Amino acid sequence: xxxxxxxxxxxxxxxxxxxxxxxxxxxxxxxxxxxxxxxxxxxxxxxxxxxxxxxxxxxxxxxxxxxxxxxxxxxxxxxxxxxxxxxxxxxxxxxxxxxxxxxxxxxxxxxxxxxxxxxxxxxxxxxxxxxxxxxxxxxxxxxxxxxxxxxxxxxxxxxxxxxxxxxxxxxxxxxxxxxxxxxxxxxxxxxxxxxxxxxxxxxxxxxxxxxxxxxxxxxxxxxxxxxxxxxxxxxxxxxxxxxxxxxxxxxxxxxxxxxxxxxxxxxxxxxxxxxxxxxxxxxxxxxxxxxxxxxxxxxxxxxxxxxxxxxxxxxxxxxxxxxxxxxxxxxxxxxxxxxxxxxxxxxxxxxxxxxxxxxxxxxxxxxxxxxxxxxxxxxxxxxxxxxxxxxxxxxxxxxxxxxxxxxxxxxxxxxxxxxxxxxxxxxxxxxxxxxxxxxxxxxxxxxxxxxxxxxxxxxxxxxxxxxxxxxxxxxxxxxxxxxxxxxxxxxxxxxxxxxxxxxxxxxxxxxxxxxxxxxxxxxxxxxxxxxxxxxxxxxxxxxxxxxxxxxxxxxxxxxxxxxxxxxxxxxxxxxxxxxxxxxxxxxxxxxxxxxxxxxxxxxxxxxxxxxxxxxxxxxxxxxxxxxxxxxxxxxxxxxxxxxxxxxxxxxxxxxxxxxxxxxxxxxxxxxxxxxxxxxxxxxxxxxxxxxxxxxxxxxxxxxxxxxxxxxxxxxxxxxxxxxxxxxxxxxxxxxxxxxxxxxxxxxxxxxxxxxxxxxxxxxxxxxxxxxxxxxxxxx
Length: 779
Description:
Layout: H1 2-13, E1 27-31, E2 34-38, H2 40-43, E3 53-58, E4 63-68, H3 71-76, H4 79-83, E5 91-95, H5 107-116, H6 121-125, H7 128-143, H8 162-165, H9 191-198, H10 203-218, H11 232-244, H12 246-249, H13 274-287, E6 293-299, H14 305-310, H15 313-318, E7 322-327, H16 337-354, H17 357-371, H18 375-381, H19 395-400, H20 409-423, E8 430-435, H21 442-452, E9 460-466, H22 476-486, E10 491-496, H23 501-512, H24 516-530, H25 534-546, E11 550-553, E12 558-561, H26 563-568, H27 575-584, H28 588-600, E13 603-605, H29 606-613, H30 621-630, E14 634-636, E15 641-644, H31 647-654, H32 662-677, H33 685-694, H34 697-701, H35 704-723, H36 727-740, H37 745-748, H38 750-766, H39 770-777
Parallel strand pairs: 6-9, 6-10, 7-8, 8-9
Antiparallel strand pairs: 1-2, 2-3, 3-4, 4-5, 11-12, 13-15, 14-15
């Protein structure tokens, strides 16, 4: 029915055109002055489907339109995808029709005749009688009753019924909404719209019909509200929106309480980045032809850098490519080579999941042939290579890896590059995404240069994002760009800014499930506050809801607001303050969880949460997980970790801990984890424990009995980091261990001192700190 209405509106916009006679080869259902053409097959069936409508014609004037989905859309989608569509993208094309005289008293004939008297095309398309006709058609299509005469057009636009003369209910935020469904309290006062509501017609169609009648009755005397239609083109766009996304814009939300009412953000949709999306897609297409390439994306936090990259994931998977990612963290010590190693470890798991056993066996043979006696070194650096072949972690391989202590960043990079060369190809390109490069150092980026400048067969698409307001001209990111260009590696760079007004309005329209034309007043306020930053926009809208400046009216079944009140309110334009204010209203359990996760960085392993739950101090964090997830602060990914949805969310969560208390909070957290995990094989969690405890080193030094145990803890963390070739990280832990030993440690703890000195010298040498290594050995 919405398709029919859409076709009729398109006809009315073209009603000044005169066409010749040509018959249509479909069955025809006549509606007043209109004829709806449907396929013959469907007309014999009891239930007709929405896509059986082939076109709509108008008897007077002689005009017809075909309604169809573009053929290219069908070519782009698999059959199962087409069947799963929930909306319909339509195009209309003018056709020839037969000339049949319309009824003398037809409202269409009256409207078109009036429009024909004017030479102004815009005035013809916006004639008030056309609005009245569309409202009448909508009512009779959906209600299946004769349209009640709310007013008489014959008496002119200035004549309205008593119900229609009342001013439309203003958008409001803090008012108390009607609690009953008495007719006098309904937001719609016209009898026809009240009737539509009573019959359960979707609120979006009730609103559209009401706005059409308002345009018809008041359009020419300047009394219409902002919601009234200004042209038939606006009507057509609203109807097309209903067809594109009926789940969002047609079907009413049946939630019965404000507490459960959610803003329906499109988390998967990228707004206002069509040009950049095309650029990054084209770049990857070039890579899939066999040439490595780099793509850098700069922009403020929250502008959608990661979202832009994520739009490419599906395309990479479709062509047989592999996507791996690492996000650098401001709080973590893991800023060097470990980030790249982590991504390569992910690649091993992806290879295992995406290939058959015979193909995995073939890949393992290639690795064995390529690395030969060095296969143990690869297994030591990339521990997940064991999933490709058990032989890579055999005792022999481990013994062969003994020279790994002497490996520096250059040799690690060379080993990783050999691995990437074997697993990547034009048929299976690898997309490496490193997020937040402003926190990466030159060691990690040098390895990226090694990957991309490899002339022996690597096929890699590197994507790096960074906050361009947090990097200086001499940052390693720009050095990498220069090196790649000098190595003749194609390098692209884009910078993202805020959304423009149209895209921002579309985002808000989608979130509120309201027609874009109605959201413009709210969008203007939001634009002034957020400058179009997508993440800030979402948080700002959420804050309006929390403060009842944006409220869901269950009678109108739509969100309502008062832009004047919003402008007058003192609402911060700082996203961190918005988030912190929202978090302060959360329960103690949720706040505790957010604080703990913020201490760990942008992500937390589920196993770590499990360890904390076993303690008395943090047993409540499990209860906070569900609430934090449902409120949109964190999300769980397929790797078994809980991530903050954005860096700013983690930053706001960390701000929940007073700055003066942060060292103590970290230290207490580390102590509890240490006591729970003591005696257990917790793997890399030992690095997490040491990091937390080291924040409170000043507290350790106050208790001599704690110094030696925590020095051993840092030595264990350093050893684990060395084993995985994270030498800079290892050196940091070993430095702490050295500082915790007593002054007479060579006499009182000779064995520990000797072992620590050799480990520190090895880590310093592998981190290219040659002078430090020499000094350590001379002690």
